[in-house]
Amino acid sequence: MLDLNAQRDPSPREQDFVERVLDKTCRGVQVQQVIYGDAVSDPCNVIYMELVEAPTLRFFFDGGVFFWREEEPSPVPACVGFHYRVLRPEGCLVLNQQRIRMARFAVLSQRRRILALHFETGVGLYLQNAADRNTLVIGQGPSQKSRLGACLT
Prior knowledge:
Blueprint: H1 12-21, E1 25-36, E2 39-51, E3 54-62, E4 65-70, E5 82-87, E6 98-108, E7 112-119, E8 124-130, E9 133-139, E10 145-147
Antiparallel strand pairs: 1-2, 1-5, 1-6, 2-3, 3-4, 6-7, 7-8, 8-9, 9-10
């Protein structure tokens, strides 16, 4: 079970993100993956959240630091052995046309970071960063969530 009470004051960048998404309606979620050779090396490198009547947001954790900006998904040039793909995971469809009612960041044990977005239906999107790896989870709450791993491969 995740303890989302382990909050700290958000950084200015995180606070700007919270203000940008609160009370916005999600139109869809896309996930950028990193492929090395023929295998998925990073199933959740970057998240794109399309918003109704607002620009698409690109966001992710890198080394426990949160980054975001307004940006539409676009092809990323391949480099030696690596290429990228953008997917629309089936598990994220429950977020379509749902209003974001809460957004917060927390610091978890062992230097893990999490972004929690709660939607009007009670469903949550949880982006967790641990050991410089992002994991995306969609579910009803911290104790009743379902992993999207199967949807992201």
